[in-house]
Amino acid sequence: MSRSSKRIMMISTHGYVAAQPEFGKPDTGGQVVYVLELSKSLARMGYQVDVYTRRFEDQPAIEEISPHVRLVRIPCGGPDFIPKETLCESIPEWIVNAEQYIRKHRLKYQFINSHYWDAGLAGDGLAQALDIAHLHTPHSIGSWKRDNMPGTAAEKEARYNFARRIRDEKGVYDDCDMLIATTPQQREILKNSAYDVPLAKIHVVPPGYDDTRFYPVSIATREALKLELGLEGRIVLALGRLARNKGYDLLIRAMAPVFKRVPDAKLLLAAGSTSLNEDEVGQLKLLKAVAAEVGVEDRVIFHDYISDEELADYYRAADVFALSSRYEPFGMTAIEAMACGTPTVVTTEGGLWEQVTWGREALYANPNDTEAFGHAICLVLQYQQVSAQLAKFGSQKARSRFTWTGVCQQILSAFQAAQLAREQQATDLPTVKSHLVAEVTA
Predict the structure, then answer these.
(1) pLDDT digits (tens, 9 = 90+) for 83-118
(2) For residue 244, what are the domain limits?
(3) Is 80 exceeded by the pLDDT of residue 315?
(4) For the chain, what percent of residues have pLDDT higher than 90?
(5) Residue 303 belongs to what H/E stretch?
């Protein structure tokens, strides 16, 4: 079978999806990494992969990502950025335009893999129009996010559009051929909550990381990187989008006991993008106010956005990586840090902590209990044996469980299972019809 006949469609409609994405821009974070890296890995296994997204602002219609992987941008909803919470309203237009593009260029796909609920709606529509299998990866789940986010019900509904989201998610989960949960926790939510998804329909496949970029280096190299990056003292690193759910304010409060016990400790907080929007500016002001309130502003380094090229070196230069999210479907940055041999403390308000062994591969604590989270960080900084053990076994865990090659194989296995189910359903359908005819004519 030629590569052109082994073509896969990825759909990730929201945010600034690009060959070289600027992580930290609105709605542009770990999911984009997941989609791009999964697509590149599938291409290395002999597939042609088209990543479909939304076209807006001055973006090109087609962009090459890597050999045999390209980005296809389909317009809808006008020329401006649309937040992921309301993009659903423009998805019907996107489906029409995408189908026209696919038929015009006579493209044939083996299956669709959509990501997040907006793209799930798009994948649902195209799968029906093109009569192909649809695998959906939720990344996060509306009912779980609604129940775990702070604020009143009215406040959360106004900001996150949960009623519409959960209703649409239920439809996507019912219609798709297979659901890809990233953690066992997600599988339980999908199975037992308002969604009531049959267990046989859910495959648990964790996200992956690029093991050609994220790997351990010697202690001497780590110290050299720290000097090269202008970092002094014991560095606790946190990075990602500037969003309240990331829990950076909780982390700043958690650092108070750390600073008391470890005199040279500092928190390096690299959050946001190169051009902050109004909401991000407000979030940054809030974080600086929290640092001032706690009296640690001289120990917190508010760093600019870290480029993808420098990311691995910042992981390696850190003494601890902290994932302090109020909720986190998985935690890709924590896996990357572990892969680099950096001791990691992760939130229990997410999916990753259940997949690591406490004290061997990582430490975990509830970030809402700021003192407990701070004590976990202290354990790493105060005890060299703990740090060395987490560095060794954390990187081993990442390599054994979370590489993209392994993820690809599991995704393809899920597709084969979905395809067999579709073929069985098609075989059974004439029998069902004949029984109906017999009943009517009897």
Answers:
(1) 999 999 999 999 999 999 999 999 999 999 999 999
(2) 219-401
(3) yes
(4) 75
(5) strand 300-303
CA–CA separation, 110 and 405 (whole Å)? 19
Nearest to 205 by CA among 182, 173, 178: 182
Residue 230 is assigned to a structural domain of this protein: yes
In order, the DSSP letters of 118-171 are HHHHHHHHHHHHHT-EEEEE-SS-HHHHHHHS-S-HHHHHHHH-HHHHHHHHHH
Confirm if 322 and 20 have CB atoms less than 8 A apart.
no
204: β partners: 181
CA distance linking residue 311 with residue 316, whole number of Å: 9
Any domain includes 214: no
Pairing of β 62-66 and β 69-75 = antiparallel
* Residue type (1 letter), 126: L
What burial letters (b/e) apply to 238-257, b meaning 16+ CB within 10 Å?
Answer: bbbbbbbbbbbbbbbbbbeb
Cα 26 to chain centroid distance, Å, stands at: 14
């591969």: which residue's tokens?
A: 361
pLDDT in tens, 113-156: 999 999 999 999 999 999 999 999 999 999 988 988 888 999 99
Question: Which domain CATH number covers 53?
Answer: 3.40.50.2000
210: helix, coil or strand? Answer: coil
Average pLDDT over residues 307-311: 91
- 302 within a domain of the structure (yes/no): yes
Could you give the number of structural domains in the chain? Answer: 2
Task: Verify that 37 and 52 share a domain, yes or no.
Answer: yes
